[in-house]
Specification:
0% strand; 5 helices; mainly alpha
């Protein structure tokens, strides 16, 4: 196990499902069985509602970190603008 494991939201949901299948044992023993650190598993539990919401809303499942700005209104406006531009712009493949 590496010192730092960045997990995507899909991987975190899989960990939560795997934990639910395990017998009732301590969180430390569960972390060892799932091959993650205790602190990683603990943080996933603390943020499980946000993780499940992000997965249900079809946000990028491969994203490892969710970074947000200070102003929620600006974040929403930026995201809407980006999605509109993305729909309008064709994707060009450049071969060298």
């Amino acid at each position: 196990m590496s010192k730092r494991q960045d997990l995507s939201s899909i991987q975190k949901c899989k960990l939560l499902k795997s934990y639910n299948v395990l017998p009732k044992i301590s969180l430390n023993d569960s972390a060892a069985r799932l091959n993650v650190s205790y602190s990683t598993l603990n943080m996933i539990f603390k943020n499980h509602s946000n993780i499940e919401r992000a997965t249900m809303e079809n946000e990028s499942g491969s994203r490892k970190r969710n970074r947000t700005g200070k102003e929620e209104v600006v974040d929403k406006a930026s995201k809407e603008w980006f999605l509109q531009v993305k729909k309008k712009m064709p994707i060009f493949m450049v071969h060298f």
